[in-house]
Amino acid sequence: MPPEPTVKREFEETQRQRNSLVSLLRAVLIILMAVFGALGLVDATNQGENIGFVRFWWIGLIAIAIYFLIVVGLDHLTPRRKLSTISGILFGLFAGIIATIILSAVIDLLTQTYITPELPEDVRSEVTRYILTGKVILGLGLCYLGITTVLQTQDDFRLVIPYVEFAKQFRGTKPLLVDTSILIDGRLHDVAGAAIFQAPFIVPRFIIDELQQLSDSADRLKRARGRRGLDMLARMQKATDINLTVDDFPVPGTDADQMLVELAQQLPAILITTDVGLARVAAVHDIPVLNLNDLANALKPNVLPGEALEVTLIKKGEQHGQGVGYLDDGTMIVAENGGDKVGERVTLTVTSAMQTSAGRLIFGRIGDDPNAPQNDRHGLPPSTGRRDPRPEDTKSAADV
After folding, report:
1. Are 313 and 343 in contact (CB under 8 A)?
2. pTM for the whole thing?
3. CA-wise closest residue to 37 among 72, 64, 55
4. pLDDT tens digit string along 185-227?
5. May I ask the CATH architecture of the domain 303-399?
6. Contact 352, 363 (CB under 8 A)
């Protein structure tokens, strides 16, 4: 039985620590507001023994309480604040204020030029009040336009300040976006530890949520798959030679596959998976996909015609006289004349091989067959002994 996954417990512990820290900060805020509010409301001019309060002290107390409720209410209403959004608001506000200051200087210059001192005092004061009101309204509009512009274009904008960026954008090598199926597969940890991939791995939060749902399923097989995926994720997080991050970026969509495709387009990233269906959907959206099964097939050693292989035949093939066996890596071997040797370990000579979407197929004949081609001293058959796969070979391999 696989070890109990620790990712869920670690996330829950981290969330509890954050909630405790927020509660502590709220308590500190209440104490500080109470202390400084009391200092401001106490009448310090009274030199007697009785300590009094300033006039209308209750107004100040109500204002402090309302301000505290507003601050805490905003904290409750926005539980999932993003640093990128806050940075975008501050940058847009800063840009609006700068534009307002520049335009205000121009307005002041025009005012001093065209409003002469000869105007009546009441007219000048009224014009000045209108100009001041116009400056405030102009500043509000420019700040609004600055904030909305940055928020609507933050996915295409990057602020060149250390440790500050509005959108998750990666330069150079594209990151690898991890799917649920490849975490359950279990081979990614060993492949990543071999330093084959130089790109960072990204695991979206909704993928972890999907694994948690599987681990809590009533079905035994689904529960085992979910726990295996969580355990594999925990191992990759603890590995010092694997660059893996958990992404909380909000993605629209209700299905995990749809959300993965959307996130891969936003980053952009390479989708790494073992799900053939997801790979086809990603290909439709022009998203690069790395299928770990394709990588494993590419790393398998090639078998040349004429080489000798030892295999145990475990069943009969679909065609008459065929025997079927498997290598240690799962490659299917079809022995053309091995139908009567099922259950035996035989030595056969490779005649041809073909690659299919389901894997690789190798055809051969048992070595004691008099019709098998004779190899030369290098282990290769003569050129006249080679032949292409026959139509019936292909048909039998697909049927098997």
Report:
1. yes
2. 0.45
3. 64
4. 888 888 887 777 888 888 888 888 888 888 888 888 888 888 8
5. Beta Barrel (2.40)
6. yes
- The answer to whether 88 and 151 have CB atoms below 8 angstroms apart is yes
d(CA 131, CA 127): 6
What pLDDT was estimated at residue 102? 93
Report yes or no: 132 and 108 within 8 Å, Cβ to Cβ.
no
Contact between 322 and 349 under an 8 Å Cβ cutoff? The reply is no
Residue 225 to residue 2: CA distance in whole angstroms? 10
Provide CB contacts within 8 A for 241, sequence distance 6+. Answer: 193, 195
Output the six-digit token pair for 104.
Answer: 């205000």
Beta-carbon contacts of residue 277 (< 8 Å; ≥ 6 apart): 257
Distance CA 9, CA 216 (A): 13
What pLDDT, on the 0 to 100 scale, is given for residue 379?
39
| Domain spans of the chain, in order of start | 7-77, 83-156, 176-297, 303-399
Nearest-angstrom CA–CA distance, 341 and 329 = 22
Which CATH superfamily does the domain covering 176-297 fall into? 5'-nuclease (3.40.50.1010)
287 neighbors 261 (Cβ within 8 angstroms) = yes
The two three-digit tokens of residue 346, written as one number: 């035989």
Place of tokens 């022009």: 286
